[in-house]
Amino acid sequence: MSVLFIVVPLAFVLAGVFVGLFIWAARDGQYDDVDTPAIRAIQDDD
Amino acid sequence: MTTLRAPSLSLDSRGEVLCTHCDQVVPDGLVRDDAPDQFCCHGCETAYGVIHSCGLERYYALVDAAGEKTGPAKSTGRAYAEFDDPAFHTLYVRKSGEGVRSTELFLEGVHCSACVWLVERLPRVVPGVLEARLDVRRAIVRVRWDSSRVALSQVAKGIDALGYASFPARDAGSRSRRQAEDRRRLIHLAVSGACAGNVMLLALALYAGLFDAMDPVHASLFRWTSMAISLVALLWPGAAFFRSAWGALRVRSLHLDVPIALALAAGAVWSIWTTVRGHGEIYFDSLSVLVFALLAGRFVQQRQQRWSADSVELLFSLTPTAARRVEGDTVREVPVEALAAGDLVEIRAGDSCPADGVVIQGRSALDQSLLTGESRPEAVGEGSAVAAGCVNISGTIRVRVEATGEQTRVGRLMRLVEECSQRRAPIVQFADRMSGWFVAGMLGLATITLAYWLWRDSSKAVDHAVALLVVTCPCALGLGTPLAITAALGRAARAGMLIKGGEVIQRLSRPGVVFLDKTGTITGGRMEVVRWFGDESARPLAAALESQSNHPIAKAIASHAVGEHAVRDARQTVGAGIEGLVDGRRVLVGSAAFVRSRVESSEVDLSSALAECIRQGLTPILLSIDDRVVAVAGLGDRVRKDSIAAIRELRSSGWSVKVLSGDHPDIVRAVASEVGISSEDARGGLSPEDKVALVREAGSLGTVVMVGDGVNDAAALAAASVGVAVHGGAEASLAAADVYLNRPGLSGLVDLIDGSRRTMRVIKRNLAVSSLYNLSAGAAAVFGLVGPLLAAVVMPISSLTVTALSFRSRSFGGRP
C-alpha cells in the first residue's frame, strides 16, 4: 500500500495543474462572456 | 452556404405586404407594385442594401432560424461625425499596437444570435476594420480597426448601415473594475470547489478505513493531506468570511458572517489539533464543503445583481452624442460634451435634441415620447422650450442651449433612475440569513451537547459536539434557495421573461398593487383610425395625401391607401395639417381648427362627431374635399385584445390594478373604463417625476409592480419594488426594470406572477426538506447516535434531494 505515498501526492499535483489552468483561463477573460461563444460556434462561416 | 429570400412579395395572412428586411407591414402608400423587394422605411432599405452588397444574405436565414419575433433592426443614417473628434478619442478610444485602435460601442437593437453573426462580419462591410466581437448579453461590440485606413465614423456608419445605432460605451473604468472582481470571484469558487471535492474523497476513504482497520500510517497521510487542502480553501477563498466577520466585530455589530466564521474557525482549530495529536475525528470535509456551498450561493446572487448594474450604466450611453453647433455662418458637428449654455445649435428633422433650450428660429413638431411616453408630436415654434432627447420630426429649428449634460431634464431623470435603483431596500440575502442563524443555533446546541456529555462521559464530549456540527452542515439549506431561483430564472428566460434578480420572485409572490402604463402596455402604442364619420369613399384620397408626411397621425391615415392617386402641391403646416391637389381635387386633412379656418361648409354633423371623439378619447381629424368637410376620422391607440382578460386575472389573484399615464386624463379614463378600471384608479397627465412620487407613496403599503415601456417610465420602474418593461419599449426602460417581458401585452405579466408564486413554493419545500433532515440528524447526534460513516453518506443525499427538487419542479412556462 506504500504506492499511496506516490499516487496521492501525484493526484494532487494533477488537480493543482487543472485548478491552475482554470485560474489562467479566468484571468485571461475567457469566462467574461459565456453567451456569445456558444452562438458563434454553431454559425459556421460560409 | 447562402440562402436567399423568396424573390416574390411576402404577404401576411391578411394580404398586407411585408417588409423584406424586418417583416413588418409596409404602409400602403410605400408599396411599389413592380419591385420584388418592399420596405417599410428608408432605414430598412439601407440595411437590406448593405447586407446584400456584402454577400451577407445568410443573416436572414439565421434570423428565421432564431425564431425571433422582433425582426432585424433598421439603420438611422446618422453621420457619426463626432466619433472622429479628438475629445471623443481621448475619452473612449484605446491604442492597441501600430496604427491600430480599439473601442467599445453599445449597440441598440441587438437581440438574437443572428445579430452576432452579422455584426462580426463587419470587416467585410468596412475595409480597414480588423475585428469586431459582440457580447450579445451586454450588447457591446469591441471593434479593432486600422486608423490609417478608416476613421471611426466610417466604422460606426458601417454598423449603422447594418441596422444598429451605436453609442460609445461610457464608464469603461468601473466596468473593467467589476470585470476583475467577477473573475476573482469565479476563481475563488473554483478553488473552493476543487478543495471541497478532493477533501470529500479523502474523507470517504477515511470513513471506509474505519471498518477495515486502515494502516495508521495511511490514515495519518490522509489526515495531513486533507488538512493541507482544507487550509488552502479556508485561507484563500474562505478568508472573505473571516475578513467580513472581523470587520463587523471591530465596529461592534453582529453580522451574518460572524457565526459562519466562528464555525469555520472552531472546526479548523479542533481538526488541526486532532491531526497533530494523531487520534480523534477531523472535520475538514464539512468545512471545505461549507465554504464552497456558501460561495456558490453568493456567486449566483451577485451575478444577477451585476447584470442590472451593467444595464443602468448603459442607460447613459443612450443620450445623444453629437450636436450641430452654429458657429457664425457655418454649422459644425461637435460632441455633446463640448456644448455649453448659450451656444446655438441646429436640429434637423430626424435628429434628437442634444440639450435643453429655447427655439429661436424655425417651426417643427417634436416627438417628446422620451418624457411623456406619448408618440403624438407637439408643435414648437419660436420661444418654445425643448428638452434634450426629444426627436425633431418635421422642420429644421435652431435652439439656444440653456442646460447640457446632467443639468438637462433627461439628465436629471437618469439620475433619478440611478437613485431609485440604489435606494431600493436591499433584500437581505435569504439563504445567507437562514444559514447564519442556523449555524448560530447549531453552535448553541453544540455547547449544550458538550456540557451534557462532559457531565456524563467526558472522554466522548468533544467528539459528540463536533459530530453534531458536521452532520448538520447547512449545505442543503445554503444551496436550496439559490438553486431553486437559478432553475426558475433559466426556465423563465426560455419562456420569454428575463428576470434580473432572484429577489424579484420573492417580491412577486405576495400580491400588492400593479401600476400599468397606458401607451404600449394596455394599448398597442400606435395611432390607428378607430372611427370614421362621413363619406367612406374619401379615405383613399386622404391616404394618398397623407403618405407625403411622416407624422404618426399621417401614417395612420396613409395606411388606408388604395390604388394610384396623383398628388400635387402638397403643403404641410406643422402641427396642424396638410393640403394639396389629389387627382386634381383640392384636399385638406388636419386638425379641426386647421380645416375649419379654411373651409366653412360641411356634409357631416361636425359637433356630434367631435363630441363622440372626445367621449371615446380619440383625436379628431377633419377631411375636406373641394372646400366641403366630407368626413371626420377618430384616431386613437387601440386597446390590446388580451388586456382585459389579463387585468381580470390579476385582480382574481389578489392584485389591485391602477393606471399611470402621461397622456391626457380624459383619454386615460376612456381607456381605463374600456378595460374595466374605475376612473379614480386611472391617473393621466403625469410627468415622470409624478409617476415616481405615486409609486413611492404606494410603496409604503406593500409590493408595488410598475409596468411600462418608455424612458418616461424608467424612473418609476426603478422606484417600484418590481419594475416590468414590456416588449417593444425603449432600451432605457429595459435597463431600469427588473423584468423584461419578451412579448407584447399583459399576458406575460400574468405568467410572471404565477411562476413566481410557484417558485416560492419550491423554495419553501426545499427549506422544509433540509430543515427536517438537519433537525432529525442533529437530534440523533446530540444523543451520540450518528456514526461518521452514516454522516458521510447522508450529507450528500440531502444536498442531492434539494438539487433534484429544484430542477424538477414546475415554475415558469408550465411543464418542467
Integer-rounded radius of gyration of chain A? 18 Å
Q: Largest sheet of chain B, described in full? A: 7 strands, mixed
* CATH class placement of one domain in chain B: Alpha Beta
Largest sheet of chain A: none
User: Which spans of chain B have pLDDT < 50 for at least 5 consecutive residues?
Assistant: 1-8, 424-428
Shape of chain B: elongated
What name does CATH use for the topology of one domain in chain B?
A: Calcium-transporting ATPase, cytoplasmic domain N
CATH architecture descriptor of one domain in chain B? 3-Layer(aba) Sandwich
The portion of residues forming beta strands of chain B comes to 15-25%
What does it look like?
Chain A is mainly α and 46 residues long. Chain A has one domain (4-42). Chain A is built from two helices and no strands. Chain A is elongated and about 55 Å long. By secondary structure, chain B is α+β, with helices and mostly antiparallel strands. In chain B, helix 27 links the parallel strand 27 (722-726) and strand 28. In chain B, helix 13 runs parallel beside helix 26 (711-719) and helix 15 (461-471) packs antiparallel against helix 28 (747-782). The longest helix of chain B has 40 residues, at 172-211. The two termini of chain B are 36 Å apart. Chain A binds chain B through residues 1, 4-5, 8-9, 12, 15, 18-19, 22-23, 26-27, 29, 31-33, 35-36, 39-40, 42-44, 46, and chain B through 1-2, 58, 62, 113, 116-117, 120, 133-138, 179, 182-183, 186-187, 190-191, 194, 198, 215, 218, 221-222, 225, 229.
